[in-house]
């Protein structure tokens, strides 16, 4: 993803515009002071998405289940929506 680098002075001068741009275009801005990276400005939605991604990837059983599902998909071990509906209807009638 493309990220614009700005000095702290430039970021301060255009802060409102940067926030609007981050929110509307999802652009990320790297803010530097004396040539060193100091902060990243990104939209709240992008930040929330990063936190959610970290949360999902921290769940090892969930990640393993995703790997299994991808392997099943790759070898064609899949079921259609109609197959799933039929199996659910069969279970429903069997439990009654």
From TrEMBL:
It comes from the Bacteria. Gene3D superfamilies: 1.10.1220.170, YefM-like domain (3.40.1620.10). Belongs to the phD/YefM antitoxin family. Antitoxin component of a type II toxin-antitoxin (TA) system. This is Antitoxin.
């Amino acid at each position: 993803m493309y990220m614009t680098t700005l000095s702290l002075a430039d970021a301060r001068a255009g802060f409102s515009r940067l926030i609007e741009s981050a929110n509307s275009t999802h652009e990320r801005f790297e803010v530097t002071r004396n040539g060193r990276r100091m902060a990243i400005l990104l939209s709240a939605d992008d930040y929330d998405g990063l936190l959610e991604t970290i949360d999902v990837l921290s769940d090892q059983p969930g990640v393993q289940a995703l790997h299994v599902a991808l392997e099943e998909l790759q070898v064609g071990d899949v079921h259609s929506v109609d197959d799933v509906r039929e199996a659910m209807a069969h279970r429903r009638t069997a439990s009654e």
